[in-house]
Specification:
Blueprint (H helix, E strand, L loop, with lengths): L6 H9 L1 H15 L6 H15 L2 H13 L4 H15 L1 H15 L2
Helix pairs in contact: 1-2, 3-4, 3-5, 4-6, 5-6
Keywords: Oxidoreductase, Peroxidase
GO molecular function: peroxiredoxin activity
Pfam families: CMD
Amino acid sequence: MTKSMPGAAGDLAEQHPEIWSAYSSLGAACAGAGPLTDREKRLVKLALAIGAGSEGAVHSHSRRAKTEGVENAALTQVALLAIGTLGLPRAVAAKTWIEDVLGA
């Protein structure tokens, strides 16, 4: 699994598998802690990545969302929803990061 992960996360997973294992277990526990669907969880994670201003995380969650069948319009809407809360510049940046993945 770690070999297929791109970038720094994949590097960390390969170099420190015990840390990656603990991190993955925490993520699984958090994901199972409530009633959200997998689709809802992916969109929330994308929104959190946008809020954090993390281009890499926005790319990652956009890629994973596409793999999981989330439609392009839903990903774009998450970026547009950020306008009111985070401001136009952050939302536009997020939209371009999502479009990097969508090929738009």
